[in-house]
Structure formats: structure tokens, C-alpha cells
Design brief:
- 35% of the residues lie in helices and 12% in strands.
- The protein is globular.
- The longest helix is centred in the middle third of the chain and has 20 residues.
- The protein contains 21 helices and 14 strands.
- It has a 5-stranded mixed beta sheet. It has a 4-stranded parallel beta sheet with strand order 2-1-3-4, sandwiched between helices. A 3-stranded antiparallel beta sheet has the order 7-8-12, with helices on one face.
Length: 593
């Protein structure tokens, strides 16, 4: 092992084996001795491999990594590396208030500082819950040391009274049943808890499963990593092989800058469409591309993703859950279908050291009910529809969750297919929505569109998953289960609502939702990709002179800094000053004494 010569010197040598500064070497070595390491280990020339530990009691979706890290360490040691595990900021979508979206950029910054300022030659990024994947990939693009993604995997399939219940999705569907009087609150809670039967992240194709699929599509994970359920034995085996592979990557100097190309990101966009992925993929992919220095804009989602068919039959766009997706072949089987049709760039390099095409050999699914062919898809054009108009410059709609009932009510008028007009009912944040949605004075009927503002990166702050608003209880009881919704926030990737969301610019920075009023008519044309309020330009100009809707004050130092430095969702919601930093590990930090 020690005869191996790295493609470039390991940066940890500057800490532990610098002949010009023996005084500093002594300082760096000294305290590592207090838990049993030896000077020989740290000075022998082996690569030091970080394990960025996202699992904790505060992050139940990623808690499996507390155990997986042991197998990762075994793999690192077996391949001749020295593992060093360290904690990261906890990110838990379900429980973090006011929103976990605040923590993606915070986790990014802290991980950058750890990887840059400590003697780490390469890193295993442990991922799972929504923001952990993009935060890690954003960070390693900034630092540019060899890095590999190890996802923790989804929970086992959830069941309630013989029915599949998917995490998140069951909550959105059950709250409609609760409003309709079909179930009581005890049944509501039982259905929700039954959807979480084991360790792991969401077992639906929510944001967690989507982003770990994106990591694999980008070439940042071992082939087949993303979809293995957390409790399966293969997950521990994948952790071991990931540990082995990162050591080889350290010797090869295979860094993210060699993998995260524009072609790789376009591959990821196509995969998101094919799997019915979360609408949160849009800002996260845009953010990762920005930090990787890759040119990507909203037009790419229309040009490269919209016409891709939906072929994965998984909730919320389909029927099944994560276990069956894994058994059907997971992400490699989906990518194989796309590559056979010429819809992927198979020449892209991956962390295996081989191309996408090399990795996909023989990865054909054996379950055509779970993973359809492109010739027989669940939906012909399943990508995100990119919209613009006088209310915003950019927004998206997830087309794969447009139900038959929604399409019949709003998109099937003879001579006006795929377009409709609706009366706006405007809410200032989710508290306002929950307080007033059942107020009969609003006169909400099936010809209304529910609009929520003040929910974007600056307004919330952080951008909240609140756009998937449900109709008033009275309307649900009449059988109208879904209304058109529009907002400058996000929605859960597990939601089955065809909302217009991620609106940029948001109302808090002067976007068009700020001047929208109750009763305004909004015209949406999916074929033209437009969304416009039918308001006279002079009236719009007058409204713009009025005070903007109020937003809550910042409640912590990070909220204030986040608001000051964060951009809009169309561009990824990144810290605007941070994207210029790339490849910073090429220069070793100056000494600390």
C-alpha cells in the first residue's frame, strides 16, 4: 500500500510531514495522540479520508449513517486510508423551523471551512435528507478535493390497512380525507406514522430520493447507491465499497471539477424528469451548478428536461415506493433506458473512474410495472414546465403530478386546451392561509387560484414548503380536491400538487406577487409557458407605489445574514458572494501559530 504514489502530493503532508516546519508538525500531531493515534500513522503517507457525518438524533432521516460510518471506515482502512469522522450541521426537513432551507447554505459554508482548514485529503459525503446532498456537493466543488456521495437510503415501504402509504405523500392526501370527514384525527396520525416503518429517508420520490438519484446521475456515487433501502444489507456493503473507492480516488486525484460538467448536469435534469422527481431539484441543481462553475439556466429545464417521459411508477407521481424501485434496478435501470434512447451523454466521467456508459452495462430492469419503457411511459412529457409573465421572471410547474381530475377541470376546455383563467385569492404566508382558508367570505370556488407570497428565500426567510395549499374544507367535501396554486415558496417533494412555485423574483424583493390583489384574474397558458395577471399596466404601476406586504423580522444572526446574501430560487438560492470561490484546497492555508 505504501508504495503507491499519489497523482499529486496529499495535502495532509503539509500538516504532518513538513520538513521545513517541525515545530508546527509537532503542534498538529500532539493532540491527535490523546485518543490513541500514533505519529507513525499520520506521517506514513497514507491519505486522510474525512467522513462528513450528517447523521444524529436531530437528523433521523440520516441517522443510519451513525452505523454506516463504521463500514465506511472499514473500507477506508482496507484500502490503505486513514478515516477521520467529523460532524456537520443537522438538517431535518420535517422538524426544523422556520425551514430547513436555511441550513443548506449554512451546512455548505461550515463544510467548506472544515475541508479547507483541516488535514483532509478526500471526503465521503454522507447524505439522505433533502439538503444534505446539495450542501455536500456544493462544498466539495468549492474546495475541490476527491469526494464521493454515500446516501443512507430510503425507509422500507410503509403500509396502513393493506395499503401502501408513502412518507409525506400520505400526509397531503390524508389531510384532504380529514377535511372531507372521511377519517378522524387519530386515523390521520396513524396513517402518517405507519409511513415511517424503519430507518432511512422518505420512501417516496420526494426530495431526498430525488437528490440522491441526482448525485448518482451526476456521477458522484457508486452505481446503484441511491435507491438501496437503509435497512438492507446492500446498504452496508455499499458503505464499505464507498470507503474503499474514495481511497483510490485520493491517489488518482479524481476531483469534482473533473466530474461536474455541464453534460453531467443536463443528464441529471433528464433523470429528474424520468423519475418524477421533486420540484426542489430545480433550485438545488442550479445551486450545485453555480458552485461548480457550470453555466446552467432556467431554459435548460425546458430544452433538456420537459420532453422526457415519466417512466418510474413511484409516489407521488405514481403508485409504488422505494423498496420496489430498488428491486426494479433503481437509478441505473432508469439511466439505462435513457441512454439506449440517446437521451444521456454516456461519455461523462464518474467517480468510478469510468464513464456513465461503462457503468450502465447490463442494467436493464426486470420490472416493467415499476420502471416503464420510454415507448410506454406513464406520461409522455414529464419535465418541469418553465413559466414566466408579468408576475415573475421564472417559475416551474411539476407536470408529472397533474391528475386526470385537474386536467379535466382546468386544462381540457375545447379550443382552449392547456390554458385557463382563475380568480386570485392571496395569502400573506402560511399562517394567514391556515387562518382564513375556510372563511366563507372569501367565496373560494373551483374557479379560484390560491396564491401565497412572503414564502421565498428572503420573505420567509429560507423559502418554505407551503405552496401546496389545499382547498377549503367545504370545497373538498363537494369533491374538489385540488385547486390551482401559485407561490414564491416551494412545496414538499412528496406533494402531489401541480403548483406553480419557486417564483422568482419573490414578493419580498419586489416581485409581481407583491402587487397582486384578491380578485385579480390570472391567465395561465401551459403551451405558451406564461402566467399573467390580467391587470391594466397603469394599475400595476400604481400598486407598485404602495408599501410592499410586510415580512417577519429576522430572529437569529444567521437569518439576517442569509437574507442579506442569498439570491433567488431560479438561480439556486445561493450565497451570492460564495460562487466565485472554487478549487480553494489547491493552496494550503497558512499556519495557525
Amino acid at each position: 500500500m505504501l508504495d503507491r504514489v499519489p497523482a499529486r502530493p496529499f495535502r495532509s503532508r503539509d500538516w504532518f510531514a513538513d520538513p521545513a516546519r517541525s515545530d508546527m508538525t509537532a503542534l498538529y500531531l500532539e493532540r491527535f495522540m490523546n485518543y490513541g493515534l500514533t505519529p507513525a500513522e499520520l506521517r506514513c503517507g497514507k491519505p486522510i479520508i474525512g467522513i462528513a457525518q450528517t447523521g444524529s438524533d436531530l437528523s433521523p432521516c440520516n441517522r443510519i449513517h451513525v452505523e454506516l460510518a463504521k463500514r465506511t471506515r472499514d473500507g477506508i482502512i482496507a484500502a490503505g486510508g486513514i478515516p477521520m469522522e467529523f460532524p456537520t450541521i443537522p438538517i431535518f426537513e420535517n422538524c426544523r423551523r422556520p425551514t430547513a432551507a436555511l441550513d443548506r447554505n449554512l451546512a455548505y459554508m461550515t463544510l467548506v471551512e472544515t475541508l479547507y482548514g483541516y488535514p483532509i485529503d478526500a471526503v465521503v459525503l454522507t447524505t439522505g435528507c433533502d439538503k444534505t446532498t446539495p450542501a455536500g456537493i456544493m462544498a466539495v466543488s468549492t474546495v475541490d478535493i476527491p469526494a464521493i456521495v454515500l446516501s443512507g437510503g430510503p425507509m422500507l415501504d410503509g403500509w396502513h390497512d393493506g395499503e401502501l402509504v408513502g412518507s409525506g405523500t400520505v400526509i397531503w392526501r390524508s389531510r384532504r380525507k380529514l377535511a372531507a370527514g372521511e377519517i378522524d384525527e387519530e386515523e390521520f396520525l396513524q396513517r402518517a406514522t405507519d409511513s415511517a416503518p424503519s430507518a432511512g429517508h422518505c420512501n417516496t420520490m420526494g426530495t431526498a430520493s430525488t437528490m440522491n438519484a441526482v448525485a448518482e446521475a451526476l456521477g458522484m456515487s457508486l452505481t446503484g447507491c441511491a435507491a438501496i433501502p437503509a435497512p438492507y444489507r446492500e446498504r452496508g456493503q455499499m458503505a464499505y465499497e464507498t470507503g474503499r473507492r474514495i481511497v483510490d480516488m485520493a491517489y488518482e486525484d479524481l476531483r469534482p471539477s473533473k466530474i461536474l460538467t455541464r453534460a453531467a448536469f443536463l443528464n441529471a435534469i433528464r433523470v429528474v424528469s424520468a423519475i418524477g422527481g421533486s420540484s426542489n431539484a430545480q433550485p438545488h441543481i442550479m445551486a450545485m451548478a453555480q458552485h461548480a462553475g457550470v453555466e446552467l439556466d432556467m431554459a435548460d429545464w425546458a430544452d433538456h428536461g420537459y420532453d422526457v417521459p415519466l417512466i418510474v411508477n413511484m409516489q407521488p407521481a405514481g403508485k409504488y415506493l422505494g423498496e420496489r424501485f430498488h428491486r426494479a434496478g433503481g437509478v441505473p435501470a432508469v439511466m439505462h433506458e435513457l441512454s439506449e434512447a440517446g437521451m444521456l451523454d454516456t461519455s461523462c466521467l464518474t467517480i468510478t473512474g469510468h464513464s456513465v456508459g461503462d457503468n450502465l452495462g447490463g442494467r436493464v430492469t426486470n420490472d416493467r410495472e415499476m420502471i416503464h419503457t420510454l415507448e410506454d411511459p406513464l406520461l409522455e412529457r414529464a419535465g418541469f414546465l418553465v413559466l414566466k409573465g408579468n408576475l415573475f421572471d421564472h417559475a416551474i410547474m411539476k407536470t408529472s403530478v397533474i391528475s386526470d381530475a385537474f386536467r379535466m377541470r382546468y386544462l381540457s376546455t375545447p379550443g382552449a386546451e392547456n390554458r385557463f383563467e382563475a380568480r386570485a385569492v392571496v395569502f400573506d404566508g402560511s399562517d394567514d392561509y391556515h387562518h382564513r382558508i375556510n372563511d366563507p367570505a372569501l367565496g373560494i370556488d373551483a374557479q379560484c387560484i390560491l396564491v401565497i407570497r412572503g414564502s421565498g428565500p428572503i420573505g420567509w426567510p429560507g423559502s418554505a414548503e407551503v405552496v401546496n395549499m389545499q382547498p377549503p374544507d367545504a370545497l373538498i367535501q363537494q369533491g374538489v380536491l385540488t385547486l390551482p396554486t401559485l407561490g414564491d415558496g416551494r412545496q414538499s417533494g412528496t406533494s402531489d400538487s401541480p403548483s406553480i412555485l419557486n417564483v422568482s423574483p419573490e414578493s419580498a424583493v419586489g416581485g409581481g406577487l407583491a402587487w397582486l390583489r384578491d380578485g385579480d384574474m390570472i391567465r395561465i397558458d401551459l403551451d405558451a409557458g406564461t402566467c399573467n395577471a390580467l391587470v391594466d399596466p397603469d394599475e400595476i404601476a400604481r400598486r407598485k407605489t404602495e408599501p410592499a406586504p410586510p415580512i417577519p423580522p429576522s430572529n437569529s444572526p444567521w437569518e439576517e445574514l442569509y437574507r442579506e446574501k442569498t439570491g433567488q430560487l431560479a438561480q439556486g438560492g445561493v450565497l451570492d458572494f460564495a460562487v466565485k470561490y472554487r478549487g480553494i484546497a489547491a493552496k494550503t492555508p497558512r499556519h495557525n501559530h
